[in-house]
Design brief:
The protein has helices at residues 11-20, 23-28, 35-53, 59-79, 84-107, 118-124, 131-151, 154-158. By secondary structure, the chain is mainly α. The protein has one domain (11-158).
């Protein structure tokens, strides 16, 4: 009847949420400020972190981190008022979306190259004329974030005790 959840450190999730709420995305890049956009931004940041930590992270530890992030997302969706069936469907779709992003990072080191806007447009496209300019800004942001993550101590990165500031 009652379920027991393993207590987790939510600092990484909270940091990912903070990064996804950066005004840069909504003012400079002109992304739509909605829950789906924020979740995709969380997924991009999380995929970069997992990619950067892959060498030093054990599978069990990576799975625990993944489970914690997605459990927090599920709680947030439930707080928005979705019912059990809708939450399950939404979580299934979000998990597919995250794995699509993560697999794209796995397939190519240049997924965030300045010339490869297809990957970012797939998730963040708008019908504006300045779409390419916005994708360049987004690419620069994620490249700086990736470099930041690869320079950071893995333990600090995985427990969420980092502070990335863009610009």
């Amino acid at each position: 009847m009652f379920s027991s959840y393993k207590k987790h450190n939510n600092q990484l999730y909270n940091n990912l949420v903070k990064l996804s709420r950066n005004n840069f995305f909504y003012i400079d890049v002109k992304l739509e400020d909605k829950i789906e956009t924020r979740l995709i931004l969380i997924f991009f940041h999380f995929a970069v972190i997992l990619t950067a930590s892959r060498i030093e992270t054990k599978k069990k530890q990576a799975q625990e981190i993944f489970d914690n992030i997605f459990q927090n997302i599920e709680y947030s969706i439930r707080e928005l008022g979705y019912g059990d069936v809708a939450v399950n469907k939404k979580m299934k779709d979000l998990t597919r979306l995250f794995y699509d992003i993560l697999l794209s990072f796995d397939k190519s080191d240049s997924v965030l190259s300045d010339k490869n806007f297809y990957f970012l447009r797939k998730y963040f496209s708008s019908n504006e004329k300045k779409d390419t300019e916005n994708m360049v800004k987004l690419t620069e942001y994620f490249n700086k974030f990736r470099n930041f993550c690869f320079d950071l101590d893995m333990k600090n990165m995985l427990n969420g005790s980092f502070n990335f500031v863009y610009k």
